[in-house]
Design goal:
- The structure is a single chain.
- The longest helix is centred in the middle third of the chain and has 16 residues, at about 175-190.
- The protein is of the alpha/beta class.
- The mean pLDDT is about 85.
- It has two domains: about 1-240, 3-Layer(aba) Sandwich (Rossmann fold); about 255-335 and about 455-505, P-loop containing nucleotide triphosphate hydrolases (Rossmann fold), CATH 3.40.50.300.
- Helices cover about 30% and strands about 25% of the residues.
């Protein structure tokens, strides 16, 4: 009913250079509902919600908040209207504490805020919503998962009645996702409205009341979630039927490629994050690392990739020790790295697509002749990867900062997987990708594994770890708590190991 509408967006159109991001889009959010917004990367989901949050201005169309036509010129105005947004890419200042980030720009906070009162309120919110985080910690000290929690708490702190969540579960464990869903249900029971942007169709079916599907900037349809299914939503998203994920994992394990012996690695605070870890990966094997964010997985991956110094222990690649030899030499030895934070570590945002694709290769033939870049080959190679990885862009010269988060991740994957690495270190490689791109990336990893590559897969997506891995290592508190075969794994069992509730080696 009209008087139940919190938000009505009518004929919203938004153009960027060479891209029609939103094409006469209509979208409504009712009080007391979770409205899932789904679509492939580049479909226009985040752009539409950035318009609602005041980050972008529409080229055409109208926005109504609680029945009143409104022009939202900035996020500050959106917040005043009771709109909150948790972005896929964090908007936190790393040198400030959690509490300082949360009250930054908060109009209800006095000029000199009693910080203990703020911290206590944050603790109450975080405990109430199952998003526990230390309000005194500085953001640079936190894992990606913990930073996501801070973003959610910041929105809850400001009391939003209209909450936009952009891929909020990408760094959460299954237990945390269940808790988040419980929180969202409590919010809609209070007649608040939630826009839930996700590429995970199982989440749409689990939490959504209605779902609007975008494809290439246009609305394909809005459906009642209780009356649809995964297959129908997937077909609406990509315009064709999608075959269920069935990965051909041929068991052809060769010689050992990576050996890690008694590895100890410190985190950014100087505390030991990886504690006496030993493991091996062979040719033709995917070793999955499962665990709650902040339990040493990131530090382990960065040590193998040469990005973090090893305090104690050895890393041996194909019989040759690479401990602490530096990033450049690790790359030259044959290690590809897909980082956890695609924006700060995976790209140079001011460079264009072609320039980012050759970041690892520009020194070598045929990309250059040691003096000059071979632009003809670079442009041809970049165009080929854009097509192969379905990167949505109008040109290889498009600045990477203009791409969606998912397309940035596709670019990183294209660059890292297009060489001939001995070892691929992949950290959350499908985070933020749509169903089609996720399936492609997973099949590419399986293909490379079947072609004899060794893969270290670190992922907070348990379904991904279980479906891709030949063996699964579970980490908690920097230590290995279990080494399992996927066929022996249950969500309950692996969840117990991820929270330190047992040990099985």
């Amino acid at each position: 009913m009209e008087n139940d509408l919190l938000v009505r967006m009518h004929n919203i159109t938004k153009k960027f250079p060479g891209v029609l991001a939103n094409d006469r889009v209509n979208f409504e959010l009712r009080a007391g509902e979770i409205h899932a917004l789904v679509g492939e990367n580049g479909a226009g989901k985040t752009t539409l919600m950035n318009i609602l949050y005041g980050i972008y201005q529409p080229d055409d169309g109208e926005i109504y908040i609680r029945g009143r036509r409104t022009v939202i010129k900035s996020p500050k105005e959106a917040i005043k209207l009771g709109i909150g947004m948790v972005h896929q890419h964090f908007t936190l200042i790393s040198t400030l504490t959690v509490a300082e980030n949360i009250i930054l720009g908060e109009p209800s906070t006095r000029l000199i805020a009693p910080i203990k009162d703020v911290e206590n309120r944050i603790r109450r919110i975080s405990e109430s919503y199952g998003l526990k985080v230390n309000p005194k910690a500085r953001v640079w000290e936190l894992s990606v998962g913990e930073r996501q929690k801070v973003e959610i708490i910041k929105t809850l702190y400001r009391g939003a009645e209209i909450l936009i969540l952009d891929e909020p579960t990408s760094v959460l464990t299954p237990m945390e996702i269940v808790e988040l869903f419980r929180v969202l249900r409590r919010m809609v029971n209070e007649e608040k409205g939630v826009v839930f942007i996700t590429h995970k169709l199982d989440e749409v079916l689990a939490i959504g009341d209605r779902a609007t599907v975008l494809r290439r900037g246009r609305v394909v349809g809005t459906v009642d979630v209780s009356k649809t299914c995964r297959e129908e939503l997937a077909e609406m998203m990509i315009g064709r039927k999608v075959v269920a994920n069935q990965y051909d994992k041929k068991s052809i394990v060769g010689s050992t490629i990576l050996e890690i012996e008694n590895l100890c690695v410190n985190d950014d605070k100087g505390l030991e994050a990886v504690k006496n870890v030993s493991l091996q990966i062979s040719k033709g094997e995917i070793l999955g690392i499962a665990g709650v964010a902040g339990n040493g997985q990131r530090e382990l991956a960065e040590a193998v990739a040469g990005l973090r110094r090893v305090k104690h222990g050895r890393i041996v690649l194909d019989g040759e020790e690479i401990t602490n030899i530096g990033v450049k030499k690790v790359i030259e030895k044959g290690v590809a790295y897909i980082p956890e934070d695609r924006i700060s570590m995976g790209i140079v945002s001011d460079l264009n697509i072609a320039e980012n694709i050759i970041l690892r290769k520009y020194r070598y033939k045929p990309y250059s002749n040691n003096l000059f870049l071979n632009f003809k080959f670079i442009n041809s190679f970049s165009a080929e990867l854009i097509d192969k990885f379905n990167i949505v862009t109008s040109s290889i010269n498009t600045p990477v900062k203009l791409l969606s988060g998912g397309n940035i991740q596709k670019l990183i994957l294209a660059r890292e997987l297009s060489g001939n690495p001995k070892l691929i270190v992949a950290v959350n490689p499908t985070a933020g990708l749509d169903i089609g791109a996720t399936d492609y990336v997973r099949r590419k990893l399986i293909e490379m594994r079947n072609n004899g590559k060794a893969i270290l897969l670190v992922s907070e997506d348990l379904e991904e770890v279980i479906s891709l891995s030949d063996r699964i290592v579970v980490m908690y508190g920097g230590r290995i708590t279990g080494i399992l075969r996927p066929e022996d794994v249950s969500i309950e069992k692996i969840g117990l190991l991820m929270t330190g509730g047992g040990s099985e080696n």
